[in-house]
Records
---
Amino acid sequence: MACPLLSARTSIQRRAFEKSDQRRYEFQQRRIISSASLIKFHYSALNHILQFTEMDNIEEDIRALQLDSSAEDGKMVVSNENGVEPEELVVPDNVEEDLRDESHTASHTEEDADLQTEHSEPKAVVEVKEQASAAEPIEDEVEKNKKRHLNAVFIGHVDAGKSTIGGQILYLSGQVDERTIQKYEKEAKDKSRESWYMAYIMDTNAEERVKGITVEVGRAHFETETTRFTILDAPGHKSYVPNMISGASQADIGVLVISARKGEFETGYERGGQTREHVQLAKTLGVSKLLVVVNKMDEPTVNWSKERYDEIESKMVPFLKSSGYNVKKDIQFLPISGLHGTNMQTRMDKKVCPWWNGQCLFEALDALEVPPRDPNGPFRMPIIDKFKDMGTVVMGKVESGSVREGNNLVIMPNKVQVKVLAIYCDEDKVRTAGPGENLRVRLSGIEEEDILSGFVLSSIEKPIPAVNEFVAQLHILELLDNAIFTAGYKAVLHIHSVVEECEIIELMQQIDPKTRKPMKKKVLFVKNGAVVICRIQVSNMICIEKFSDFQQLGRFTLRTEGKTVAIGKVTDLRA
Ligand SMILES: Nc1nc2c(ncn2[C@@H]2O[C@H](COP(=O)(O)OP(=O)(O)OP(=O)(O)O)[C@@H](O)[C@H]2O)c(=O)[nH]1
Ligand SMILES: [Mg+2]
C-alpha cells in the first residue's frame, strides 16, 4: 500500500520528492519545520475493501454502545449468562425529526463523488515557512513533554468548512505565509473556486482542489498555550466515510463543524447527512469531547444572527444527547467564521457579534480536558502504515504505555520481536514517547513486507491478544434494504487500524429494548435497532482488546457496501 506520509516542504524539495522514493524522502525531511507539518494519509486499502455505494440514511435512533458519558440520559444495565460483563447502554431519547428543509444550498452534488478514491499521486503538501533544518537533534525530553498532546479530528457534513478552518488555524498560527496564501488565491480563482483558497492549505491533492472536496484525511500540527494539537481533517463526503473513520479512530477530541448557511445546516442534519453520521461514528470510535463549531457565521444568509445560532444549537442538543454525549460535560458550542478567521485565535469584536461573550476556538481547544492516559500501561501502538528507511519504519498512535530508544518490543499478531532503533514524534527525533503521541518508529528485526496495517507494536511482557474470533455486543443501526441480521452475515470490521472482513458466526443473546435485559428465548435473527450479543469471526488473526480492558482497542464498527450497519464493543476474546 502506498504511504504518502509527507512532511511540509518547499517547492524545490517537492520537485526532488517527485523524483525520489516518496516515503524515504519525506522521512528525511523531518526537520524542515518544527511545530508545523502537514501530512496526508492515503488509505487506499480501505477503499479497495469497501465499495462505496450510496450512503443511505442512518436512523437517528443509533445509540452508541457504552455511551457512558451521557449522564443525563437514562441508562440500562445489561447482564447475560455468557460471562459477559454487565454493561451500560444508553436509552434512546426522542430526537427531533422536524428538519426537512429541502433547500439544499450545498454546492456539492452526487456527481462530485466521482472522484477516484485511489490516488497514484500522493497528497502534496503546503509550502509552509521554511525553518532551519538541523541534523536530527534529539529533542530535550523535558521540553517535549511539557505540553500535552491531543489529536483533534475535524468532522461534519461536506462543505461545512473543515479544511478551511484547518487551513486558517495554520495561517493564524504563523505556519503559512502571505505569499503562499496569494498563490492559493490565484490557483483557486483559476479553478473557479475562489473561496476555497484557505481549504487548499489542507486539501493538497490536485483532485481535491479541482472538486473542492477532501478525500484523504489531512494532518497538521499546531500549538496553543498548553497543548500540541494534531489536526485530522476528515472528509465530509459520504463516499469517504471509511477515511473519516480512520481519522476519528485516532482522535482524542472532535471539532464538529456545522455550516450555519441557509439550507446547509439542514442538509447536513437531515437523515443521510454526515453531521449525524459523523457524530454517531465519532462517539463510537472514542471521541469523548466535541467542540461544535457553528461556522460561516459571516455568510450573508446568516450575518452573525443569534437566532440562527440558537436554532442550530437547539436542534443539535437533543441529537447529541441521543448519540450518547453528555451535553453539559462533553459538548461546547461556539460561533466562528473559518474563512475570515473570526473568533478563532482571539475573541471577536463586539462590533462583529454583539451577543457572543464566550470563548474563541483556540481558547476552547486549550481548555478541553480529556482523561489522563497511563504512560505506564502495557505498550500498544496500532500500525497504520510502514515503509523502509534504514530499517523498517512503522507509523501509528501510541494508545497505551511508553516507548524508549533501545526497547525490545513485539509485533503482533505475527509475534516477531523487534528492537527500537529510533523514534520520531511529529517531525522530531525523540528518545522516548508516551500515550497519545503519533510516532514513526524505526525498527530492526523485521522486514517491512512482514507488517500490515492493523498489526500492533506491543510490549513483550504483556503482548496484545491476537484472535480470529471474539464475542461482541452489537447495536444494529440500519441494515441494507432492511435485511435481517443473522448467523452468516458478512461485513467489514473496522477496529483501531484494522480493516478486515468478518462473519457473524452465532447470535448468542438479544437484549430486550424495553426491559434492557437479556432475553431468554433463543435468537435466530434480529432487525434494525436491535442490540445483540454475538460471536464474530475474521479470517486473519487480529489484535484487539476487551472493551472493559481497553476501550480504544475494543470498540468497532461494521460496514457493508459503504454503509455503517452496526457498532459494537468486544466483550470476550476467543483463541
Ligand atoms: N462564507 C464562508 N464560507 C466558508 C466558511 N468556511 C468555509 N467556507 C466555504 O465553504 C466551502 C467549503 O469549504 P471546505 O473547507 O472545503 O469544506 P469541508 O468541510 O472541508 O468540505 P469536505 O472536506 O469536502 O467535507 C468553501 O467554498 C469555503 O470557502 C466561512 O466561515 N464563511
Ligand atoms: Mg475538507
---
Amino acid sequence: MQCGTCGHTEVRGATTTVEEWHAGKLYVVRDVPVERCPNCGEEYFAPAVMDALERLLDHPTNAEPVTAFALEYA
Ligand SMILES: [Zn+2]
C-alpha cells in the first residue's frame, strides 16, 4: 500500500491507540490494527476496523477507567 499523504511505498501494519468521544464520554481503545507510514506517520484504518471500533463503542463491555486530566488552555 502506498501512503496517500507523502507517496512512501512501504506503509506497514502496526497497532495504535484510538481516543474517541462517544455519547459524552472519552474512550481509549488500545492495540487497534492500523497501516502506518514510517515516513510521515499517517495512519490508515481498514473499513472492517472502523466498523469493529464503532461496534465496540456502541457496546463498551469490559471497559476499565483510566486516569485523565482535563485542562483549560487559558
Ligand atoms: Zn507518508
